[in-house]
Design a protein that fits this description.
Blueprint: H1 6-26, H2 33-62, H3 66-91, H4 106-132, H5 139-168, H6 184-192, H7 208-220, H8 227-254, H9 257-269, H10 271-276, H11 283-298, H12 303-316, H13 321-332, H14 335-359, H15 385-398, E1 406-409, E2 415-418, E3 420-421, E4 426-427, H16 433-455, H17 463-479, H18 494-504, H19 512-541
Helix pairs in contact: 1-2, 1-4, 2-4, 3-5, 3-19, 5-8, 5-9, 7-8, 8-9, 8-11, 8-18, 9-18, 9-19, 11-12, 11-13, 12-13, 12-14, 13-14, 13-17, 16-18, 16-19, 17-18
Amino acid sequence: MRFVTPRFLLAWFLSISLSYFVIGFLSNFYSNNFEIALLTLVLHTGVSMFFYYLLGKVERRFQPQPVEIVLTFALFTLLLVYIVFMFGMAKQFPSLFDVTLFQLEKDELIYFAISIVLALPLFAWTLLKAKEKRLNQTSLFSFIDENIPGLVLGFFFFSIYLIFASIFNQPAFDVDDIFFDSDGLLWRTRFTTPDYQDYYWRSVHPFVLLIVRPLITLFSFLFRGDKLVAAFVLTAFAGALCVFLAWYFIKYTIKQSLYALLIASILGASAAHLVFGSLIETYIFLAAVMMTFLVLLLKDRPLFILIFAGLLSFGITITNFIQTAITFIFVKQDFKQWVKYGLLVGVLVVPLTLLNNFIYPDSQPYFFIPSSFTTEADNTFTPSVGRALAIARAMFFHSIVAPDPLILEEEIPFLKVWIFKADPMRLSEYETVFGTVLAFGWLGLMLLGSFLFLKNLKREDNRFSFAFIFIVLFNFALHLQYGKDLFLYSTNWTYAIILFFALAWKEIANKRWFQITLLVFLTLLLVNNSRLILTMLNTSALHIK
């Protein structure tokens, strides 16, 4: 048993907590004791293998890069503490959070414990077979090996998002507009039940059902057909995918893994992604598709793959296709490619919309009928200087550093938690010294990035940077007239703002003082933005008993 080393035993031991919560979650759907035992045996062996490999990678890299490993460890420790903290915060609201969703029942613990012990020899045998079969030479292993920091980071944020997805998407939230003007009831109903018709009768989501409903059905196979839980998991997964893709984009443009981890963590901890990585809506899927499009362009993938991503963006929400077009134009810089991309997407969206309404009859009106857009009139407003300033604040500050939200008592039987109210216009403020100082800290980082961007304007390849600028400008122009709560659309631009500054800070990305600055900022950001989640919990608990 040459594998039974301190590293082997530590990997087995470190896997126990993770296995417990994963099996606790799955036990809601696999309650048979034999199923619990078998799932534990397989899962714990797999997780132990992962930890064994991870510990080996850390050990190999510690000697040449001790400071980077220490800072990376500090980052992941921070996120682990944050998960525990957020779990504990949710437990304070038993009417909202069913803690047993992530725990094993007492009579299941014995089967779990026995399987954990039995996983030890299976773990050793699996390691031996992996060596014999040379699994480290497979493409899957290569992908994991190259991207393991980003994958681990994505899992941390998936865990955070899933906790709150299980709270804020419950059937008890039986009206729309509770949180930031989001249509929680509508999309939960459309995605997870046979009642898929858009009762607002809007055409701006031409074939969203064709995209999201099959994914939820696919995920639901893991949960014995429970589509609501599948929607929780898919939403959290989309949020985590955004974090991974941000890491991937920065890692492969700037070639610095720790810096990429810090930037991706700031995106994941931003107010926009913390909220919409947890709420069942369309916006986190748009962000995930758009960031996938960025990575496909970065890797110079074939045109047909880019067209597929563009179709997904158009199908979820029409206006977001413009963001893919902006990025394509700036990065490709090839007129023939622009024409092909626009024409092929334009040709394919009509049959896909027809297919959507064939599979889901009368689900929504057709976007190519002009009268179908009249329902959007309620969300349009007259442009003004005041609204322009409010949009700027919402985009550059509130989307990242959460303000103290507005609590509105209006026509629905819930207190509304919003950031911005269009009519009459009201905007959230930073009402604490902590929030104000953090917002100024973010302003300082943006000013530094702006200075470095202008300083290196002629020396760098700024194709992606200019794409991000014009994406932000497009969203600014669009929402100068459209949107009751601007924060609802924040995932459409937050990635662009953060990635723009990440590229602008490239010159100092390797500087330890700057990496530590970002780590401190992230710590404070997590603390500040958890207050927004706490406010959502507090106001919701007043109505749900």
